[in-house]
What does this fold into?
Amino acid sequence: VNVTPEVLARASLMRASEPGDPHIGEAVLLHGPVDVLDAIKVGRSPLPKAERYRSRLSGREVERDIERAVAQGIRFSWPGQAEWLPRLADLGSHAPIGLWLRGPLDLAQVCDRSVAVVGSRSATAYGQHVASEIAAGVAERRWAVVSGGAYGIDVAAHRGALAVHGATVAVLACGVDVDYPRGHNTLFNRISQEGLIVSELPPGEHPTRARFLQRNRVIAALTRGTLVVEAGFRSGALNTLAHAEQLMRPVLGVPGPVTSPMSAGVHEKVREGRALLVTDSDEVLEALSPMGEGLTHVGWGEQRMFDMLDDIDQQVFEALSVRLPREAAVVARRAGIPAVEVAARLSGLELLGRVRRTETGWLAVPE
Amino acid sequence: VNVTPEVLARASLMRASEPGDPHIGEAVLLHGPVDVLDAIKVGRSPLPKAERYRSRLSGREVERDIERAVAQGIRFSWPGQAEWLPRLADLGSHAPIGLWLRGPLDLAQVCDRSVAVVGSRSATAYGQHVASEIAAGVAERRWAVVSGGAYGIDVAAHRGALAVHGATVAVLACGVDVDYPRGHNTLFNRISQEGLIVSELPPGEHPTRARFLQRNRVIAALTRGTLVVEAGFRSGALNTLAHAEQLMRPVLGVPGPVTSPMSAGVHEKVREGRALLVTDSDEVLEALSPMGEGLTHVGWGEQRMFDMLDDIDQQVFEALSVRLPREAAVVARRAGIPAVEVAARLSGLELLGRVRRTETGWLAVPE
It folds into this structure.
């Protein structure tokens, strides 16, 4: 990156303030980052916390910080820069004034068709399974899965996308070079090699509670909609939904057993009419696809017609009967293919009209 | 029952025709049952299937049938009779022209506050558990649980109500003296002793597919709303929902795992906005309570204040901590009380503000 005065000013202001600071955001929109930074540095800024900003910059060599980050493969993007996602401007004065990026994917390209998949850190096995399945399903259709890199639903979503070699974006509440949680360092390594890690925090910074909450607004703003897979009452995951609602982006929720407290928050949102109930990746894409592509099932059906008529589909199809319905698990056993794969294939074959779902299992449809 | 000409005519027409026959229904509304029957008997009826009706009556001594039924404790009710439920007239020409009843409860009284609980015959353990819990919950608040006496969700709902000595009504597609399915003869015995068995079919009649479908309209029409607990795509249980919709009665659905085909039909209805998602008996009653009693939670909370502060509540309460959330199963173990009971008690205590639900379990609320 060429450290122009604008880049230096934006990166400095991000050092000086906390993510989502509306005073900094508004000032930058009105006066540009260079003037705002200069006023702070010379003690003439009218902003309420100007002295605090200045003290956080004293002794810092932000230019050297940037050069060091770039040497580690970290890059910086900002409004107007090639990779920047214009959609972020929907946050108004709360929009990030820059983003640190790590990984091969282009921010604007990958987020163009993306869905946030969020949920509880203490997710159940069911929630993690469904998060992975849906993430894999949308990723197979070239939609990116954006999440927060946390335990539970987040990691299940990232892994689901990675499992099908799809695109995934982790938005962190710490520096893009910080492994938090530490147990996810392998995950972050893989995402930095195949996906994209995004943060407003400068490299090296650690997360705080406030940073998690502000991070959620970035997840909501980067994506076309937010899907919550499991969330208890008052779960932090519901915070991301609130941001999506404010941005007027669709909010989707996966139901679960009513006996599971982990689904109670999702059920509440659906009951209130604030989230659309979805049960699979087809329904997610149907809800989020841009206007004019409303006939998702038909459209994708046609596309998959060519993508999918491969050996595995054939094996799945041959493991079915035209008369005796078989459960997906039985089909998986007969075909010798993992159940996760079989479920995805059956959905695809269903779109093509080659198989049919009945109350007791799947049937092959004779041609 | 006093076998008046009207009773004899209605019972005869029910022998002559199949349930829900709109020609018979409309003719009875216009001309009264005695004239309609006389015209059929003398071969002057203008109805399209008049000859068929007549042939089904030939050689029948309906009066003797009625006397025999009454001797077995079976009674007959019809529009205008003391026990008749006026709400059934909402079915118009499809309304039953009479009903056979067996059991101590009064049809009109028991159905005044009633909910239909329906679902798949091949329900999962989860579905049966939730059906029982919700049935017990509504029955504890003196709402009757109406269902069809079938395997799966039906029997779970009836048993849930019976378990708390609540009111339950089985609406059959065969005579009220016929045990179908045979495996449910104990259930039917108990309902005939504590609840109510209802049918349009004369005693001794056996079910047919058409009779099951017509029976569903009676279930929908007897109740204030219909709850579906589990139903696959194209499940017969959804037929009852269609009747409830036509009657403009609320349709409610319990979500479940998206991995369960048994919940797929319910999820579809919720997605289409044709069913309200509910997760417990409080939410069912909130949706179905008559206007002016909208504050279900508060109202019932007050009533329960006196009903419920018993030893079991105390034990459940003492098994909780004010700091460490405990799952209901853990509470059940600590209190030595069955989990089903604990769940019901926790709901009650929650209404009283004595306990609080958190993402990871239940907390006691200090006074």
